[in-house]
Amino acid sequence: MHDRTIDIAALIAWRARRGMTMAELSRTSGVSYSLIKYVHAGERQFSDVTAHKIAVALGCTADDFSTPGRSRRIAGTDRSAA
Fold first, then answer.
1. Closest C-alpha among 64, 80, 59, 49 to residue 6
2. Of 32, 39, 49, 72, which has the highest C-beta tally within 10 A?
3. Could you tell me the CA-to-CA distances from 63 to 10, 25, 38, 80 in Å, in that order?
4. What is the pLDDT of residues 17-34, one digit of tens each?
5. pLDDT per residue over 34-81, tens digit each?
6. What angle do CA 70, 68, 44 make, to 5 degrees?
7. Alpha helical stretches, state H, the chain
8. Cα–Cα distance list, 65 to 9, 22, 51, 59, 81 (Å)
9. pLDDT grade, residue 3 (50/70/90)?
């Protein structure tokens, strides 16, 4: 399974355009609130499948707030210390 590199600002902007809280996005998409919260904080990424669920809930495409990637690393962070 591949993760996508999330553009957090774009994700927040799409959620704001739809007037959705993180809890509403969770309910609408079926993605756990905790994962959404971690992604918004830059601590995790969405898989391709999860990004698609989020995109459907927001009425956009996953490419509107992310780019495909093969790494489980978050751009600009070093998770090996975690």
1. 64
2. 39
3. 10, 17, 19, 27
4. 999 999 999 999 999 999
5. 999 999 999 999 999 999 999 999 999 999 999 886 544 444 444 443
6. 70
7. 8-17, 22-29, 33-40, 48-58
8. 8, 15, 9, 12, 27
9. confident
Instruction: List Cβ neighbours of 27 (8 Å cut-off, separation of 6 or more).
Output: none
Distances (CA, A) of 28 to 13, 48, 57: 17, 17, 6
Q: For the chain, give the number of residues.
A: 82
Which residues have C-beta within 8 Å of that of residue 70, sequence separation ≥ 6? Answer: 2, 3
